[in-house]
């Protein structure tokens, strides 16, 4: 199983970015993919999650109404559309199998993709 994040960039406050999580190695769709983030000096936190079997989604309160997670089955990619970005969204963003930080093995985290929002 391999997940690779991409799409991070430097953007001005109020702008948008779309992150991609390329997924490979699964033989079933019976799993969830979560997006997480970690800002310098802060703990990693959950941002959003999607269950591939039925498309059920979850969002952290601080991104509701601004971020949208989706599943591009044709490309086997999980997307995170981020709109109305704020400086406090600045962080390294990661995708992983599962929705809870505490349930993801330490060695399962990838390199992440850096999102920087300037004020």
Description:
This protein has 119 residues and is mainly beta. Helix content is 0%, strand content 49%. It contains no helices and ten strands. The chain has a six-stranded mixed β-sheet with strand order 2-10-9-4-5-6, with no helix packed on it. It is globular, with a radius of gyration of 13 Å. It starts with a strand and ends with a strand. The model has no long low-confidence stretch (mean pLDDT 96).
Can you give me a brief rundown of this structure?
This protein has 119 residues and is mainly beta. The protein is 0% helix and 49% strand.
Uncertain segments are none
Secondary structure: number of strands: 10
Major β-sheet strand ordering = 2-10-9-4-5-6
Major sheet attributes: 6 strands, mixed
State the main characteristics.
four-stranded antiparallel β-sheet; six-stranded mixed β-sheet; mainly beta; 119 residues
SSE order and pairing:
Layout: E1 2-6, E2 10-12, E3 17-24, E4 32-38, E5 45-51, E6 57-59, E7 67-72, E8 77-82, E9 91-97, E10 113-118
Parallel strand pairs: 2-10
Antiparallel strand pairs: 1-3, 3-8, 4-5, 4-9, 5-6, 7-8, 9-10
């Amino acid at each position: 199983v391999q997940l690779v994040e991409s799409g991070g960039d430097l953007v001005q406050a109020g702008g948008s970015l779309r992150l991609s999580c390329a997924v490979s190695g699964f033989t079933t769709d019976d799993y969830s993919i979560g997006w997480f983030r970690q800002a310098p000096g802060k703990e990693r936190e959950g941002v959003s999650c999607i269950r591939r079997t039925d498309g059920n989604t979850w969002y952290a309160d601080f991104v509701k109404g601004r971020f949208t997670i989706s599943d591009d089955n044709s490309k086997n990619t999980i997307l995170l559309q981020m709109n109305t970005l704020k400086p406090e969204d600045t962080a390294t963003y990661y995708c992983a199998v599962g929705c809870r930080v505490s349930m993801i093995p330490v060695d399962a985290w990838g390199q992440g993709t850096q999102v920087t929002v300037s004020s």
